[in-house]
Amino acid sequence: LDPPLQHKKFKEAIFTVISSELYLPALLLFGHTLQIHGASYGRDLLVFIPHEAITQQRQLEMIKEVGFKPVFVEALTLPGRTDWKFVDMLVKLYAWNYTQYDIIALIDCDVMLLGDIELPFQLMRMGDFPLAACIAPTTPSPPFYDKLSGHFNAGVMFIRPNVEDFKELIRLSSNTSYYDIGLAEQSLLNEFYHGKWLGLPLTYNLIIRFRDREDIWHANRASAKIIHFAGGHKPWNRFKKEQLIADDFLWRDIFIELYPSRKWVGGEFKLYQGFAGI
Questions:
Q1: How far is the C-alpha of 182 from the C-alpha of 186, rounded, in Å?
Q2: Under a CB-based contact definition with an 8 Å cutoff, are residues 205 and 133 in contact?
Q3: In whole angstroms, how far apart are CA 64 and each of 33, 191, 199, 251?
Q4: CB-count exposure of residue 200 (10 Å: 0-12, 13-18, 19+)
Q5: β strands within 9-102, DSSP E
Q6: 265-278 average pLDDT score
Q7: Between the CA atoms of 88, 247, 256 and 268, what dihedral angle is there, to the nearest 10 degrees?
Q8: Angle made by CA atoms 177, 180, 184, in degrees to the nearest 5
Q9: What residues contact residue 239 under an 8 Å CB cut-off, 6+ apart?
Q10: Claim: this prediction has a pTM higher than 0.85
Q11: Model confidence over 213-262: pLDDT tens digits?
Q12: Among residues of the chain, what percentage have pLDDT more than 70?
């Protein structure tokens, strides 16, 4: 696919969310890998920041350095209790109101690009699906097996902004009987787009927590475009060496490479300092 030709008729963007400065290393590496794999070429990069999760001017400058435009937004409160990691994820819904774009890649910031992501954009341009995503792998034990069966994972989505969908999603987000609050925006979006979404290969959202599954991880890792560090396993956190896997070391190696060119220092991050020797 030829990046210079793809944007002549379509305006595209890549959006993400950062809900805490704990995710700043993730966002910076995400932006960097978007650049080195050409995904940001000709596309706007926006990051939603709810309730001033990032306030320090230096941190905002760092975010801009990797190509993202910070956009402060009002938090959208879930109508019930959920895991703290999901509390701010309804702010993703704002993306549907950005109708100046034909297609938006809405991607969690705890990812690492390993290749180009042109195919999903191309499929969205060619078809009329409102959303494209990868099916959510399920675990063989409750409670998530039944809840996620047939769902797409909302960590990597390619959407077609639509004001009417935006208004309806906002309205339904407060309806506790419509979706499973425990799974936050993923459940809401799966209910809303049931039977209407386009399935993408797992290579565009290969989730680290399934690294022991032969049918998921080992079958797709060699051709993976996006590694998603969903769950509690984050490569910027402290782990015993025997708990680390190759992609943890890869993430850390890439992150360390950012320092000489960006002139960042370890004290600017809330992360385990020891891994980088900083």
A1: 9
A2: yes
A3: 14, 35, 32, 20
A4: buried
A5: 12-17, 44-50, 69-73
A6: 57
A7: 20
A8: 120
A9: 233, 248
A10: yes
A11: 778 888 889 999 999 998 888 888 876 676 788 898 899 899 888 877 78
A12: 84
